Amino acid sequence: NRISIIGLGYIGLPTAAVIASCGKVVIGVDNNQYVVDTINQGNIHIVEPELDLMVHSAVAEGYLRATTEPESADAFIIAVPTPFKAEGGEDHVPDLSYIEAAAKSIAPALQKGNLVILESTSPVGATEKMAQWLAEARPDLSFPQSYGEDSDIRIAHCPERVLPGNILQELVSNDRVVGGITHRCSTQAADFYNIFVKGECVETSARTAEMCKLTENSFRDINIAFANEISIICDELGVDVWELIKLANRHPRVNILQPGPGVGGHCIAVDPWFIASQAPESSRLIKTARAVNDEKPSWVVKKVKKLVAEVLTNTDKNEDNIRIACLGLTFKPNIDDLRESPAMEVALEVSKVFNSQVWVVEPYLEELPESLLNFGTQLVGLSKAMEADVIVLLVDHKAFVDYPIQIGSNQRALDTRGMLKIR
Ligand code: SAJ
């Protein structure tokens, strides 16, 4: 039982490590030589709690090995990125070129009886396209889209659904949606996941599995957009949104999510566009939610400017000695990931205006990204930041929530995460 994982990133590497820890031989494939070398030395190139130990022991015990060239295996899992590309004046079109390249790279290694699973988040129909690319590359083998249940190769889509920061636990405990091109493809894929998944593996079609993943992330995006819209309305009407949401959520059928400075990460801000690009006319709510969440960072920046103006009017501070502190840069708490981070967007915009008068506190970074350093923005400790005139709370890192933040009468605070109300 040899398993091959193509793409050793945030999903592929933890999946490889978990399967290897079940005593299966796993061959990880990545086209980045640095990633391959790092893993073969028993180290990791991404940050995820406890992953380093798991990879280290899987490599040391000989269950996990990385390479740049695909080799023969019983099952192939494709976990490569699906970003956007601009096409015909339209942006936000899913880019399947990584899936295509991965399919073409494994095609020569395929053997009769193999299972190929696509885990990358994909637009509806991508698994069928992948099957087509494989069939074109291997005319000597039969594939389920043409040969049905009797095909040589089985193909399924099983979207990953793990939460960064909690990947190792969720990989095992979450239910999996397993969508085969045929019924037998689903069953064989479900049998494979049962090696390491304790949650239920529910079988469906490939297209439904594709749409299921996109729907989950769009559901969350729309619900966060609702919270963000309510937070702006509350600000206009002088209502404390954090208290309001707690009260409304006491209703047995209401469960409002938390507002914030916007929606970041590489999934929730991306996947709704996969639906919108395939059904643009019908995706009205989905597109509006994207717009609401994308505009939230600019609203935060406007608020910061207002607070600066208030301090300038009410104190003896002037434009040259006023200080603004941004607490947090990552896209969510207690991780080091800056991808699509709204906090980063706010800090950048504020730095563009106030340059070296901006301080940033980010316990998960040793130095600031160059884009911020270019404006003269400084990385400072939390106690230093408390001396700033305007304090902008952007990420609810545990270190911030635990800190006794006191706002003096000459200071102003903008709490985008409800941290001050937690106490
Ligand atoms: N956020 C809010 N308010 C909330 C919840 C989240 O503003 O109430 C913000 C976060 O601060 C962050 C963004 O949303 O900026 C996304 O964070 P997240 O923790 O909700 O989700 P991700 O992007 O880390 O992971 C999501 C998960 N999807 C769902 O919960 C439906 C995860 O299960 C998926 O596997 C992952 O996307 C993915 O890879 O698609």
Automatic annotation (TrEMBL):
<dbReference type="GO" id="GO:0016628">
    <property type="term" value="F:oxidoreductase activity, acting on the CH-CH group of donors, NAD or NADP as acceptor"/>
</dbReference>
<dbReference type="GO" id="GO:0051287">
    <property type="term" value="F:NAD binding"/>
</dbReference>
<dbReference type="InterPro" id="IPR017476">
    <property type="entry name" value="UDP-Glc/GDP-Man"/>
</dbReference>
<dbReference type="InterPro" id="IPR008927">
    <property type="entry name" value="6-PGluconate_DH-like_C_sf"/>
</dbReference>
<dbReference type="InterPro" id="IPR036220">
    <property type="entry name" value="UDP-Glc/GDP-Man_DH_C_sf"/>
</dbReference>
<dbReference type="GO" id="GO:0000271">
    <property type="term" value="P:polysaccharide biosynthetic process"/>
</dbReference>
<dbReference type="InterPro" id="IPR014027">
    <property type="entry name" value="UDP-Glc/GDP-Man_DH_C"/>
</dbReference>
<dbReference type="GO" id="GO:0089714">
    <property type="term" value="F:UDP-N-acetyl-D-mannosamine dehydrogenase activity"/>
</dbReference>
<keyword id="KW-0560">Oxidoreductase</keyword>
<keyword id="KW-0520">NAD</keyword>
<dbReference type="InterPro" id="IPR001732">
    <property type="entry name" value="UDP-Glc/GDP-Man_DH_N"/>
</dbReference>
<dbReference type="Pfam" id="PF03721">
    <property type="entry name" value="UDPG_MGDP_dh_N"/>
</dbReference>
<comment type="similarity">
    <text>Belongs to the UDP-glucose/GDP-mannose dehydrogenase family.</text>
</comment>
<dbReference type="Pfam" id="PF03720">
    <property type="entry name" value="UDPG_MGDP_dh_C"/>
</dbReference>
<dbReference type="InterPro" id="IPR014026">
    <property type="entry name" value="UDP-Glc/GDP-Man_DH_dimer"/>
</dbReference>
<dbReference type="Pfam" id="PF00984">
    <property type="entry name" value="UDPG_MGDP_dh"/>
</dbReference>
<protein>
    <submittedName>
        <fullName>UDP-N-acetyl-D-mannosamine dehydrogenase</fullName>
        <ecNumber>1.1.1.336</ecNumber>
    </submittedName>
</protein>
<dbReference type="InterPro" id="IPR036291">
    <property type="entry name" value="NAD(P)-bd_dom_sf"/>
</dbReference>
<feature type="domain" description="UDP-glucose/GDP-mannose dehydrogenase C-terminal">
    <location>
        <begin position="325"/>
        <end position="422"/>
    </location>
</feature>
<dbReference type="InterPro" id="IPR028359">
    <property type="entry name" value="UDP_ManNAc/GlcNAc_DH"/>
</dbReference>
